[in-house]
Amino acid sequence: MPVAQTRKEFYPLCYGHHQEMMPDQFNLRNTSDPSQTLAYACREPGCLVRYDSSRGYFFVQGGNEIEEEATPSVTCTHDGTSMYLAEVQPQNTSYRLWRCPQCEASRTNEEGLAVGQF
Fold it and tell me: How many domains does the chain have?
């Protein structure tokens, strides 16, 4: 089965490993819709982090979405879409650039994101 194409090509970073995530199609077994779901997956072996613009960051293990500790939750101020981590800077370890996959708006943690959003 071919992988569904997203509206725009983008590659979020895993917020834990800061590696580019790749499109990954999988069966999500704990939803009412048994069809396959497209999300982005971390390439680090054993990493359970996934990203989908409708849900944001979440964890998947064995085809089931699992509840874990808080995941980053930064939403676009223009359309409410869950933003993805687009850039980190090794020389400034606290810097995070978040981008909206729909309208491509961006925010940084230095622009005053509320504490606890990521």
Answer: 1
Question: Rounded to 10 degrees, what is the CA torsion of 8, 65, 50, 85?
Answer: 90
Is 55 contained in some domain?
yes
Reported as a single tens digit per residue, the pLDDT across 72-113 is 889 999 999 999 999 999 898 889 999 999 998 999 987 654
Expressed as residue numbers, the domain containing 43 is 22-66
Q: Buried (b) or exposed (e) across 71-81, using 16+ Cβ within 10 A? A: bbebebeeeeb
Domain-embedded: residue 52:
yes
Decide: 98 and 83 in contact? Cβ < 8 Å: yes
In whole angstroms, give the CA distance from residue 103 to residue 58. 22
